[in-house]
Amino acid sequence: MTRAAALLIALLLAACAADTMRSYVGQDIRNVTLEYGPPINQLDLGDGARAYQWRKVSVSTTPPSAVTTTDKDKKGRKVQTTQYSGGTQSVTTCLYTFYTRWDEARAAWIVTGFKEPSFDCSLGDLG
Predict the structure, then answer these.
(1) Residue 117: what pLDDT?
(2) Does residue 127 lie within any of the structural domains?
(3) Which range marks the domain in which residue 29 is found?
(4) What is the share, in percent, of the chain residues with pLDDT greater than 70?
(5) Does residue 71 lie in a domain region?
(6) What letter would DSSP give residue 76?
(7) pLDDT single digits (tens) 80-120
(8) 3-state secondary structure string, 83-121?
(9) How far apart are CA 123 and CA 69, in angstroms?
């Protein structure tokens, strides 16, 4: 039961970034830029299409902890031992890609789709 619940939670979380990205489909790409800053890359795909990319770097840190235990040695004296753990960092770099098409009537690049973010990157949003 716990494995199924964990899978369900993971699938629900995976939808978060995709839902945020999906909300921009049909909008001017400048709306994404206004929300998240300038893209790091623009790629002309030909035939009036263009891709825009944003990068997000996330750093998570496990806080350090210390566990101190007190025992008695063979002579009955108190001996304290402290073990330290944690304090590690992990860095995740995510690339978010929006596909656009030039709309002459609106004189704008309109979002037509996006590349699904990887699972590591789908737990949050662009910001």
Answers:
(1) 83
(2) no
(3) 2-64+91-121
(4) 83
(5) no
(6) S
(7) 888 888 788 888 889 999 999 999 999 999 999 999 888 77
(8) EEECCCEEEEEEEEEEEEEEECCCCEEEEEEECCCCHHH
(9) 38
Q: Decide if 7 is inside a domain.
A: yes
Q: Residue 111's closest CA among 20, 45, 1, 23?
A: 23
Query: Does residue 111 lie within any of the structural domains?
Result: yes
Cross-strand bridge partners of residue 80: 70
> pTM for the complete prediction?
0.68
Question: What does the DSSP assignment read for 24-51?
Answer: TTTSBHHHHHHHH-S-SEEEEEETTEEE
Nearest to 51 by CA among 1, 95, 106, 105: 95
Q: Which amino acid is at 57?
A: V
Q: Which amino acid is at 39?
A: P
Q: How many domains does the chain have?
A: 1
To the nearest 10°, report the CA torsion of 42, 40, 22, 14.
130
